[in-house]
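To: structure desk
From: M.T.
Subject: fold request, one chain
Message: Could you run this one when you get a chance? Sequence is below, nothing fancy, just the single chain.
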Amino acid sequence: MNEKKKTLIAMAVLVALGYGLFLKNSTGLSVGNSSDITEEEILEHIIFLSEDNMKGRYPGTRESRDVISYIANEWRSVGVKPAGDNGSYVQPFDIADGVEIGKETSFSIDGAELILGVDFTPLAFSGNGDFSSKALFAGYGFNMDKEKKWNDYDGLDVSGKWVIVMRGGPEQIHPHSIYASHASLNQKMMVARDFGASGIIFVSQESDAGLVAFGHSTSQSKGSIPAIHLSNEMANQLFRPHGHSIASIQEKMDTSLKSVQFEMNNLELSAHIDLKEKTIRGGNVVGMIRGRDRDLRDEYIVLGAHFDHLGMGGHHTGSRKKDTTAVHNGADDNASGTAGILELSQKLFAHRNKLKRSVLFIAFDAEEKGLLGSKHFIENPTVSKENIVAMLNLDMVGRLDDSTLNVGAIGTSPFFEPLIDSLANDIEMAIGKSFSGYGPSDHASFYVNDIPVLFFFSGFHHQYHLPEDDWTLINAKGEKDILNFVYDVSIALNRVSERPLFTEAGPKEPPKRRRTGGVTLGIIPAYGGGSSDEGMAIDGVSTKDGPAGKAGMKKGDVLIEINGKKLLNIHEYMGRMGELKKGQKITVKVLRHGKTLTLDVQL
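Reply: Done. Structure tokens follow.
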């Protein structure tokens, strides 16, 4: 660390330690001594946002638009100025909301049309288009030369043909099975594509009747091959002329632990796949209080909270009751945080003569879909991103228990810990501190862009992501105490002469959700729908000393190939990484500004 940086850090620490005394002794800024934030108003906001007729504030719905109007009207009445797009409070953006099967989707065998939803269904990761060719059967669709010497493609030429494979594997697939990492439908599709197949058809084992439910998650079909699941009845009709059945094939493979292969050259299989990506219109709500200091008013403190929730629940929404259709009110998550920034905007506007820097208030949309609103803002900021001094995020601040407020991401600036400790001396709450900059909320979008962040959070509870997260469980007194503390923190950050230095505090990526054999590139995939026709977009490099950082990968690169194998999206990225081992040296191809680069990576 150079001497200049050491001096600045020391100054920041001294300023922070003294700032608690300033707040206690300055007129109008004493801790918790303002009537601007009230329990009644907190509950009024939360009740409006989380009542049943808001239907869970799902992005793109009429109810979501009502919430956006409510927030904008509150700021308009307070005097907070619009700071969204084109002079309005709103910053609109499109959100991918899954896929649906188009009416033109069809599949036929020798000209005989099959019934969609009865005889066959496309899979959500299927490619679109027309395809007609011969077919062959290739066992379980494995390529396991390294583990089990099991390669269902050994000796087969599948180029330009449909490959038919059986779902699952030769034993119950459990996490420790040697077949587990090879058994997913997406993985089998990638293997077929690697061998040159132009389409893949899945059939179920004998005991697994019924078609795979069509997954409506965000489309992964761009650039892929057609992928279809065929009913057991239709599969047996296909196999019978060749002396096989689902039962006989499964018994032979499971007993011998060897592949079953055969061609069906007398049949022509034709498909037209028409999956349509659904897009909804979301929008952040952005307001501003202009700072009074001529030298500092073009710098910004961001106070943010997401206002969306899970709607009526169901699969792919994040609900912990996936099979329950009910209003997920989200009173704590995150009507409480939204109410918080509304109350803070009122109090800060009342004391606007104390503001040196400008304050930007952002109510983020689509946080529950992968931080999409905050990611959109940071990629399309309505103020200079370089002039954002710090971001304070409020998420689930309405259920204070045991009088302990959790303050996260303290390690993202040396200014933060002494400031928090100083301001906490004279409050009744205890402060639980964590230092990592990354977290499962909107501050992560700012942290990965080297902006100091703080995350205020009153803790998880049993009603998290359930319909039971209702306003009757809100601790309004506790939230009021939290908001007054956040107010003091924001005033301190606003008035200090030197902007807080950013320090990296842990990885800039979420924890791994799937096993990849312990291998990582050290990149931040674009989780919020950043895939393209050509590959997987990269939001950043998690650490300069990781494999990707050392290889020269950069934010904005599109990863298109790993070790000679094509990939299209984050699911395929995880599958490709699962094929690799620690210590292995590989090559990757990325697109950067329209040019293809080949990089050597040491894992």
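Reply (cont.): The radius of gyration is 28 Å. Let me know if you need anything else for the meeting.
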